[in-house]
Specification:
The complex is a heterodimer of chains A (about 375) and B (about 260). Chain A has about 375 residues and is of the alpha/beta class. Chain A has helices at about 20-25, 30-35, 55-65, 75-85, 105-140, 145-155, 160-185, 190-230, 230-240, 245-280, 285-295, 300-325, 330-360, and strands at about 5-10, 10-20, 45, 50-55, 70-75. Chain A folds into two domains: about 5-85, no CATH class; about 130-360, no CATH class. Chain A contains 13 helices and five strands. In chain B, about 40% of the residues lie in helices and about 25% in strands. Chain B contains ten helices and ten strands. In chain B, the strands form two sheets. A six-stranded mixed β-sheet of chain B has the order 6-7-8-3-9-10. A four-stranded antiparallel β-sheet of chain B has the order 2-1-4-5, with helices on one face. In chain B, strand 1 and strand 2 (about 20-30) form a beta hairpin. The chains are: A alpha/beta (about 375), B alpha/beta (about 260).
């Protein structure tokens, strides 16, 4: 039965039907309005015909009574009990908000402090990893080979298709744009220099690093974060398993090896894409292209690209493990951490790339 | 089966992958009682619970709440059924990004009927009802103790004033004192609100103190249904080992 409010005569208000939340929700506003309209006049409340009452209904009635018992009331004992129960709820005390004019300064100070603390933690983590790595050099039997190869498979082998696709497409785009420009000067043959240098030195390592940061960096952060939420890290530590050795080192070393391998692979695919367009647009044959490539691009450029791959891999793995280990035990922090890990890793990769460009400006050009 | 049955499972068969979880489950839960579902690990208790609350569908057979079969119900009927029961999950399942207050207010706000002051009062009342202090309202779920998580989860399950409440392992992971206090709480709420309580439990003390009737799930069937005394009479290895493990041990010693 729907909750109803009837006023049979001037001095009496009758509530009937089921005043339960399930029924109330359909016409709550109307009932509230009706109830509050009865407040001003002195009336007798007849609640004997109620079919049902729950705390939501009781609370609604109590609020409309102005939080005190009306002078005239007829009610069943059970319902009275509920109303009494509801009447005991205190009005919430809203704590006064104190305005602090210094709060921006405090916020900046805290921010800087957190930055330093985080940097310190990061250095500690890095130190732990270096120490663990040196330790495994002395005790090679303890090297976490299984975890290492798992990381290699997940970060490298499964990334082959996507890096191939992206690499080839970027190669095609680069070649297309350069071909049009070079053709106007009749400098067709320089497409080999341009592609070789651009891809091996810059595009290959950068593309591979961005894809790995997106794929493996986020996965590492999410995995470590979820393990922390689930107390798995505590369990490992309690069992006496070294977390840096078993969990972090294989990931860091895995990425440091996976990324240079992917760099070589991306280079090959990008050059293949570029070569195809060079043939289509400028009529440069594959054999000629490949013969000319080593003569115009010094080998050191390839090594530079691969070396960057190692450093980028280390950077991505360190960022994502650091952020993963610092995730708070709630789902929002996990999402934020994963995003932060990808953004930070890509930013760090690009910053490092710019540093390399300046440092090695005299090498291989 | 009488019309007072609030839940009915008839000829329920559940297959997950190759595994036949329920071969034939028949169960009736009466309105207003405290019913305990008992069974060994992996006997399909939680699967049956998930079928009752509409998170899963049985492969065959019908599961009906308030006389409405989940399979035949349309979306409107389903949401009506959902608004009439509350669930307390085993580990609380509190939303970790919301405070205690917001967790309990969540279903109330979702109705889009009440104003904030009413919601606030209702939440405070639920906290009071489950024996929690109003000061925990602003806390994050991560800092709560095990017993408090269960209380908050119960408060959230009660937020929409349900007639029926499901408790998955209500006292698991609690120390004996908190466990006892939680039992008292359930008993009090059952009397105060006239709730029907369906719980999954392993805890023999909880089982014997609270339940009016039990259903025992083993070998994919309900092997016993009725009062605890009646259930104890049934001759089945699970029932023997559950109610008198010491005899099981002595038998093992002899053989």
């Amino acid at each position: 039965m729907k909750p109803e409010l009837i006023r049979p005569d001037a001095g009496r208000v009758v509530l009937s039907g089921s005043w339960r939340l399930n029924q109330l929700k359909t016409n709550y506003r109307f009932l509230r309005h009706e109830l509050c309209c009865q407040k001003e006049s002195e009336v007798t409340w007849d609640l004997m015909n109620l079919e049902g009452l729950d705390s939501a209904g009781a609370l609604l009635i109590w609020q409309c009574w102005g939080r005190r018992w009306p002078s005239g009331l007829a009610i069943k004992d059970g319902d009275r009990g509920l109303l009494e129960c509801v009447s005991g709820i205190a009005r919430p005390v809203v704590p006064a908000v104190r305005r602090d004019w210094l709060s921006p300064v405090v916020a900046i100070g805290l921010g800087v402090g957190t930055c330093f603390a985080q940097f310190r933690e990061f250095v500690v983590l890095f130190g732990q990893l270096v120490r663990t790595f040196l330790w495994t050099l002395i005790h090679p039997a303890w090297f976490p080979a299984r975890e290492f190869s798992a990381t290699l498979y997940k970060a490298c082998v499964t990334a082959l298709p996507i890096t191939a696709l992206v690499g080839a497409l970027i190669g095609i785009v680069l070649s297309y744009l350069s071909a049009q420009q070079l053709e106007t000067y009749g400098a067709n043959i320089y497409i080999v220099n341009l592609l070789g240098m651009g891809i091996m030195r810059e595009m290959g390592p950068l593309l591979a690093a961005i894809l790995v940061a997106g794929r493996s960096g986020s996965a590492i952060t999410a995995e470590l974060g979820a393990m922390r939420m689930n107390q798995e890290l505590d369990a490992l530590a309690a069992m006496g398993l070294s977390i840096p050795l078993r969990l972090l080192l294989p990931k860091v070393l895995g990425l440091a090896l996976a990324l240079p391998l992917l760099v070589v692979w991306t280079n090959i695919m990008a050059l293949a894409g570029g070569m195809w367009i060079a043939y289509e647009k400028l009529g440069i044959g594959f054999t000629y292209f490949l013969q000319r490539l080593p003569t115009v691009v010094p080998l050191v450029n390839l090594w530079l690209g691969v070396g960057k791959g190692v450093i980028f891999g280390l950077a991505i793995a360190l960022m994502s493990t650091y952020i993963g280990l610092n995730i708070e035990p709630n789902s929002e922090s996990l999402g934020q951490g994963t995003t932060r890990s990808v953004v930070m890793a890509i930013t760090v990769v690009i910053v490092l790339d710019a540093l390399f460009a300046v440092m090695f400006s005299g090498v291989g050009l | 089966m009488s019309p007072a049955d609030i839940i009915r499972c008839e000829h329920v068969v559940t297959q997950i992958g190759d595994h036949l979880v329920h071969k034939e489950v028949n169960l009736a839960i009466h309105s207003g009682e405290i019913f305990s579902l008992l069974g060994g690990s992996g006997s399909g208790k939680t699967v049956l619970l998930r079928e009752m609350i509409g998170l899963m569908e049985s492969t065959k057979g019908r599961v009906a709440l308030f006389g409405i079969d989940w399979k035949e119900a349309n979306e409107e009927e389903r949401s009506q059924i959902r608004s009439r029961f509350g669930v307390m999950f085993q580990h609380g399942a509190l939303i970790s990004t919301l405070t205690v207050f917001d967790n309990i207010a969540l279903p109330l706000r979702e109705l889009r009927v009440f104003d904030e002051s009413m919601i606030e009062q209702l939440v405070l009342q639920k906290l009071q009802m489950t024996g929690l202090d109003a000061s925990v309202a602003g806390w994050q779920p991560a800092v709560l103790s095990g017993g408090m998580v269960k209380r908050v989860a119960l408060a959230r399950a009660l937020a929409l004033e349900p007639e029926l409440i499901f408790l998955d392992e209500p006292t698991a992971g609690l120390d004996p004192v908190s466990s006892m206090m939680f039992r008292v709480l359930i008993q009090r709420l059952h009397q105060q609100l006239g709730l029907t309580v369906v719980m999954i439990t392993h805890d023999q003390v909880t089982l014997e103190h609270l339940s009016h009737r039990v259903g025992i799930l083993a070998d994919g069937r309900i092997i016993a249904q009725g009062s605890i005394e009646e259930a104890k009479q049934v001759d089945h290895p699970f029932i023997r080992s559950y109610f008198s493990p010491e005899r099981l041990l002595s038998e093992e010693g002899e053989s």
